[in-house]
Specification:
Length: about 160
């Protein structure tokens, strides 16, 4: 069964220290993809912009700077409020975004209640899939038997 945790929020696209633009966004977490969080930005173009990264990165980013490369997060204060900054880097460009820390922390906590840390792999069904993949089939009997079984009489046979 799939559970989805979603939250609509306005993030700020930081253009300069003095200027930012509001961007509607949706945070999504799906139990069918238990290690990842998804953020969809509705930037007024024909299609929204999607980013996916590790849930663990967002959990840590609520409390301390983390990440490297394409996704980096850190908590800070901006305009007298607690925010989480997200720096995104892609071949198409870079973006610095601010999200309300309280909203992100509450949403992240909901995902952790549905799928506690360390229990994600159980949702993937890897053990069952691997057992099914490795289970012998009737045709495997040919491979499991000894093709060079001796048909010569054994000592003591007449």
């Amino acid at each position: 069964m799939q559970n989805v945790v979603e939250r609509e929020l306005d993030v700020k696209l930081v253009l300069s220290p003095e200027r930012s633009l509001p961007v509607p966004a949706r945070l999504s977490y799906l139990t069918t993809d238990p290690y990842a969080v998804h953020i969809t930005f509705h930037i007024g173009s024909e299609s929204p912009v999607h980013w996916t990264f590790a849930r663990e990165l967002l959990v840590e980013g609520v409390f301390r700077p983390c990440g490297h490369g394409d996704v980096r997060l850190w908590p800070t204060r901006a305009g007298g409020r607690q925010v989480i900054c997200i720096a995104l880097t892609s071949p198409d460009g870079n973006a610095l975004l601010e999200m309300d820390s309280t909203a992100v922390a509450a949403w992240t906590e909901r995902t952790l209640r549905i799928v506690p840390p360390g229990s994600e792999s159980a949702l993937l069904g890897l053990d069952g899939a691997l057992a099914e993949l490795l289970a012998p089939l009737p045709a495997d009997d040919l491979w499991l038997s000894d093709p060079w079984a001796s048909e010569e009489p054994q000592e003591g046979d007449a």
